[in-house]
Amino acid sequence: MKLPYTICYTSVANQLDDDEVNEIFEITARHNNNCKIQGLLLYSKDTNRFFQVLEGEKKEVIKLYHEKILKDPRHSEVTEIFHKPTSKPIFFKYTSKFNLIKSGEDLQEIKKYIEEHKYSKANSDEVLRLLEPFLILYS
Questions:
Q1: Which residues of 10-38 are buried (b: 16+ CB within 10 A; e: fewer)?
Q2: Torsion angle, alpha carbons of 18, 21, 27, 30, to 10
Q3: Which structural domain, as residue segments, surrounds residue 16?
Q4: How many domains does the chain have?
């Protein structure tokens, strides 16, 4: 892989029921795995928010973000946390697939991994900080 690129953002879901959220998760996992994009997608029903980290080849990550994510009418108020190249992606050694966070256990596992493998300290610390509200909701 060329120099990895990371985009991390949050957004507000637009009136989604459980079936629609599950469909988003399935499509996201399939597409991102096919494009060799790693990271995670998290949805909180309590706050009605998405949190996503995308890592992979710059061209693929930026294309996905600008051509699909920003144009998707199922969410709004997309707020970028970071959008930059990184020499040490957060999820480099986690799994070779895109991760969907659907339970408190999934979230705790991701948190533990990030704490143990801080390849990119600044990015890792920021992702951990942003995961905390979700950890509280899933506890």
A1: bbebeebeeeebeebbeebeeebeebebb
A2: -90
A3: 4-138
A4: 1
**47: number of Cβ within 10 Å:** 14
**pLDDT tens, residue order, the chain (139 aa):** 577 898 989 999 998 898 998 899 889 988 988 888 988 888 887 788 888 889 899 999 999 999 999 999 999 999 998 898 887 776 665 554 555 566 677 777 767 766 666 655 556 666 666 666 555 445 4
On whether the CB atoms of residues 101 and 74 are closer than 8 A, the answer is no
Residue 110 CB coordination number (10 Å): 23
Burial letters for 111-132: b for 16+ Cβ neighbours within 10 Å, e otherwise?
Answer: bebbeeeeebeebbebbbebbe
CATH number of the domain at 66, please: 3.30.70.100
Q: Which two tokens stand for residue 101?
A: 């966070």
DSSP 3-state of 44 = strand
